[in-house]
Amino acid sequence: MAKRKGGRPSKYEAEIKDKLPAVQGWAMQGLNNEQIAHNLGINVATLYKYKAQHSEFNEALKKGREVADFEVVNAMHESATGYWRTEQVVSQKKTVGYNEEGKRVEVTEPCIVEVKKWYAPNVTAQIYWTKNRMPKDWSDKREVGAEIDGDGSITFNIMPASTRPPEESEE
């Protein structure tokens, strides 16, 4: 880095550089720049300056966010396609026995049982996924055109925006 001309010395080398693993972890947890700046005890403008001046600081933020983004994409895919989960639920265990007098006795007590549960595909996640990943096929935007024929009849052409035919050239 270029030699500083004056002013207050930067806190980066003394106080921030050794916190890069924490910066990456905060980014991985989904904290935004303002929250990370707060955790570091700096102004958000200083965080942006450190991002621009210190590539290792910028990389720590990027790596953390890449992990978080990857996890969200996987969760979104799982939500869109459906998934199985094993969960622990509280149930009742019934024990039947006989007391000293020969009378039937039922004892019910709570117990924890593992249950495999299916989560159906989430239609909202499917819509979001298809509109963003395949906009040509799933966009809500449509191009509407109209032509007036010589006899006064009107023809409407409605098609997805991405499949619009190329403009005709006048020769």
How would you describe the overall organization of this protein?
This protein has 171 residues and is α+β, with helices and mostly antiparallel strands. It has seven helices and four strands. The protein starts with 11 loop residues before the first helix and ends in an 11-residue tail after the last strand. The model has no long low-confidence stretch (mean pLDDT 87).
Give the total of beta strands. 4
Strand order of the largest sheet: 1-2
- Counted by DSSP, the helix tally is 7
Q: Cα distance, first to last residue?
A: 60 Å
Sheet of most strands: 2 strands, antiparallel
Tell me the radius of gyration.
Answer: 31 Å
Structural class: alpha+beta
Given as residue ranges, the uncertain stretches (5+ residues, pLDDT < 50) are none
Q: Please tell me what the overall shape is.
A: flat
Average pLDDT rating: 87
Portion of residues within helices:
40-55%
Order of helices and strands: HHHHHEEHHEE
In terms of DSSP E residues, the strand content is 25-35%
Which key phrases capture this entry?
27% strand; two-stranded antiparallel ribbon; alpha+beta; 7 helices; 171 residues
What's this, in brief?
43% of the residues lie in helices and 27% in strands.
How do the helices and strands line up, and which of them pair or pack?
Blueprint (H helix, E strand, L loop, with lengths): L11 H5 L3 H9 L4 H8 L3 H10 L1 H27 L1 E16 L5 E16 L3 H11 L1 H4 L3 E7 L5 E7 L11
Antiparallel strand pairs: 1-2, 3-4
Helix pairs in contact: 2-5, 3-4, 4-5, 5-6
